[in-house]
Amino acid sequence: MKYVLITGGTSGIGFAMAGEFLERGYGVILASSSRKNLAIAKRKLEVKKSKIVKSTRYIITIEQDLSVEGGAERLYHKAKTLGVDIEILVNNAGFGLTGGTESINIKDDKKMIQLIVTAPVCLCKLFLRDMYEKGRGKILNVASTGAFQPGPYTSTYFAGKSFIYSYSRAIRQEAAVRGVVVSTLCPGTTRTKFFEKEGLKTPIWAMSAERTTKIAVDGLMRGRGVIVPGIINNVLRLIPSEIKMYFVGILKR
User: Fold this and answer.
1) 207 falls in which pLDDT band (50, 70, 90)?
2) Is the sign of the CA dihedral 63, 191, 230, 156 positive or negative?
């Protein structure tokens, strides 16, 4: 059986992806910093997918904090000791911080950068080597529509997602000649706990994590480079960045 490793796989888009990949016949490896959340997510998946999950081996959990230095390397080595065929890597873990850049705690900013920038880069480097040896594999890096313009009052988060967007497109070209697909998911507003963690209300126009996930996985399997779920998100992408940046500042202030 082929497996998918999903970081931040206990809630939101990551959890929805786990369910989607199980439906498609993959085993899943959920990675998170919370042992409790991993146990809850695994039980929920086993109940929801009881007709599919015939063995607990189909769902594996790894406790690892990716927001600390060396966390990505430790996750990689833990995954390797499982002895399973990891066909797909999904770099999904992340959180956002809202506020004026001078008001956000430096330690929190560093932790976020480690999680949404450094960890995905390290995991891509490590897993790409394995995928190149096999001549196959797929990586899905989760960026955001926030990658398409700067984000006042959420400056580090948007900048981090812009980095992932650019980095993923670059390594996609490198990986293509080695038989490996690298795709970038740029979801817009999604109905997850993301806004709750930011201390904000989830906008009423948010797309469901399940709908976002289905579009994302379909795009990955078709080898698409950049995946932007939803007609509205694709239309908004055409608006000049200065205009979008202005409205982001209003919404996040």
Assistant:
1) confident
2) negative
Residues with Cβ within 8 Å of residue 77, at least 6 apart in sequence: none
What is the number of H-type helices and E-type strands within the chain?
10, 9
DSSP string, 126-166: HHHHHHHHHT--EEEEE--GGGGS--TTSHHHHHHHHHHHH
Residue with the two structure tokens 């809630």: 11
DSSP-derived pairing of the beta strands 138-142 and 85-91: parallel
Q: What is the pLDDT of residue 151?
A: 93
Euclidean distance between CA atoms 159 and 152, whole angstroms: 10
Report the SS3 class of residue 110: helix
Joined together, the tokens standing for residue 82 give 């499982």
Task: Provide the token pair at 76.
Answer: 């990689």
Question: Which helix (DSSP H) or strand (DSSP E) does residue 30 occupy?
Answer: strand 27-32
Give the CA distances from residue 48 to residues 15, 22, 43, 141, in Å, rounded to whole numbers and listed in that order: 12, 10, 9, 26
Tokens of 94: 């992340």
Encoded tokens for 131 = 């995928």
State CA 77 to chain mean position distance: 20
Q: Residue 54: pLDDT band by 50, 70, 90 thresholds?
A: low
**197-115-165 Cα angle (round to 5):** 100
Whole-prediction pTM value? 0.90
